[in-house]
Amino acid sequence: MKDVVNPEVTRKIAHLARLKLVDGEVEKYTAELAKILDFVAQLSEVNVDNIEPVIHGIPLEPRFRDDEPVALSEEETKRIVACSEQSLYEQYKVPQVIGGGE
Domains, the chain, ranges and CATH? Predict the structure, then answer.
């Protein structure tokens, strides 16, 4: 991949990442980027036919619990809501998510 990675490419990547590199760093990172891309090229040569994709290396079983409503007294509810930064009508006040204008 040395033909793909050159100082100009490294400078462009640094600019996109908002990094300021001096000339010595450009040379260093150009070499390191070439090594990384060479390694990725090696990985692409591996035969992965008939191999199932995995999300995690260890099989994980989801552990769900049933939602069980809990009745709280009015005093407990007020005490819990009072812990929030903002509350309105004894409920949590949160920023608008849908249609918030951003």
Answer: 7-44 (1.10.20)
